[in-house]
Amino acid sequence: MKNHRVPNTIAGKSMFGNIDWTQLDYRKELKNNITTVDELKQYLPLSPEEEADLRKVIDIHPMNIPRYYLSLIDIENPEDPVRRLCVPDAQELVVAGAMGETTKDPYGDDKHNKGNGVLHKYDYTALVVTSEYCAMYCRHCFRKRMVGLPNDLTVKNFEKAAGYIARHPEITNAILSGGDPLMLPTNVLRKMLNALKDIEHLNHVRIGSRVPVSYPLRLFDDELIALLKEFNTEKTLFIPTHFNHAQEITPVSTEAVRRIRSTGVTVNNQAVLLAGVNDSVEALVDLMNGLLRIGVNPYYLYQCMPVTRVRHHFQVPLRRGVDIVDGARRYFDGYAKRFKYIIGHDIGKLEIYGRIGDKLVLKQLHARSGHEEEISRLLVRQLTESGGWLDDLPEVTL
Ligand code: SF4
Question: Strand, coil or helix: what is 272?
Answer without folding.
Answer: strand
